[in-house]
Amino acid sequence: xxxxxxxxxxxxxxxxxxxxxxxxxxxxxxxxxxxxxxxxxxxxxxxxxxxxxxxxxxxxxxxxxxxxxxxxxxxxxxxxxxxxxxxxxxxxxxxxxxxxxxxxxxxxxxxxxxxxxxxxxxxxxxxxxxxxxxxxxxxxxxxxxxxxxxxxxxxxxxxxxxxxxxxxxxxxxxxxxxxxxxxxxxxxxxxxxxxxxxxxxxxxxxxxxxxxxxxxxxxxxxxxxxxxxxxxxxxxxxxxxxxxxxxxxxxxxxxxxxxxxxxxxxxxxxx
Length: 271
Ligand code: KIV
Known about the structure:
11 helices; TIM Barrel; 271 residues; alpha/beta
């Protein structure tokens, strides 16, 4: 008899079943071992090793600069910590846009070197061939439509996408194409909630929203945003569950004060 408690791992099939029975899917980002362990222990369904690591971990202005090697680093740390959640790793800009062969090579590195369970790619009709090639090779792919931050220099801003009918129509078509190409799920970022609800209802695969309203099959947030680590980032869609910027700053200020006044360490805090 095994002394280890059996943990039922979340798979792409689990997510499909959740959609079928109307159970919402929870997803958060993580980029390191310690945070991934807490999030997994808390019972999250999906952990995304997002290329938002470029912003929140490395302090870059965009996600464009993060490399495949850096995504592999972050992915390795997260996968090591996780017992239950499905771990999806972002394909960074430049690692798949060239052609489907390059996309497959990059995805294989994320699966083999980082131990990813699935990968995520931004775009619709433009990346279909790559999606199909990965899926045919046994790699689960999550799509990403709406605001796609890797194209920030094309869009020019991070404002709500697909408000105009032409763009909304392309998004509807792209979502169907991604589903037909074999994506197991799609992220919809920062689009009108009515459109996100319509797409979620029209697709068989689960749709995970960020800034896309409550009609999606699940929600994703960047962990650092949920924790309120950046006090300058306050978009309407974000619910901050903590204000860690203030808490951490306050703790550090107290520590500095205690060190300077020789209050720390006291006699119980030394040998
Ligand atoms: O990189 C990321 O964190 C993402 C989420 C915003 C969906 O792609």
